[in-house]
């Protein structure tokens, strides 16, 4: 198990706590055999230690209680309550329309439902760009009202003052550079960032967010060789999405990764399941049984 070898304080190596879903078997130790106790809660220093040991970090989006419980039990280190809920939950065409007030209840549901994973609250468009103080006050809401363990914001050099203000105020910050979806109109659409002469800008952004105090940085749609160079230069972990396999970790939107959403998908998505077909078949069977009268049967009736 990746996490079982991490150095931790006695408090953090307590037995894996049961969450709202009961008491799951610790990920990576299904037999329950005696050995090093797994980490009770992922902290920022555990992620840095994983980078130092060359261990990869897994991250998925989650917006609700049940997926949070499942992904937590699976051993995913980071759960992102992303602004991607805008177009994966709320039916918008982009991430831009979602608000703080819409994201906080989702964040609260996820944070209440996990025992081990670190919950990342995603600051939506317009909630932090105006000033460091605006960003800090928004992040406070995610921590106090949403129960987030940290927050994520998009931007590099230009967001360093916001990151510094948040970290100075006791809020761990994950940065997001490369392609930043909240800036899609300014960037000219969904385009790879960091090709050619702009590669230096990606490294400059990465170093700036690290210097400002970010504990990790997401790199989206960055050429693999550039992402590898950035990863080697930084002391903090890098999380890739469309940035090759030499980042310290990877993140995907869960509906993409597990086939709940179909149709045209980004090149960097790998689908590990076909949940849409499973749900569609189940719903059709339910519909047929209701209409032919076979459900509810005697065993489903009081």
Structural commentary:
The chain has 302 residues and is α/β, with parallel strands linked by helices. Helices cover 36% and strands 13% of the residues. It is built from 11 helices and 8 strands. It has helices spanning 44-53, 65-74, 85-88, 100-113, 132-144, 160-168, 184-187, 199-212, 224-233, 254-257, 275-292; strands spanning 57-61, 78-81, 118-122, 150-154, 173-178, 216-220, 238-241, 249-252. The chain has an 8-stranded parallel beta barrel with strand order 1-2-3-4-5-6-7-8, surrounded by 7 helices. β3, α5 (132-144) and β4 (150-154) form a beta-alpha-beta unit. α6 (160-168) runs parallel beside α8. The longest helix is centred in the last third of the chain and has 18 residues, at 275-292. The radius of gyration is 20 Å and the shape is globular. The model is unreliable at 1-31 (pLDDT under 50). It is found in: Cytoplasm. Belongs to the PanB family. The active site is at 220 (proton acceptor). Pathway: Cofactor biosynthesis; (R)-pantothenate biosynthesis; (R)-pantoate from 3-methyl-2-oxobutanoate: step 1/2. 3-methyl-2-oxobutanoate binds at residues 83-84, 122, 152.
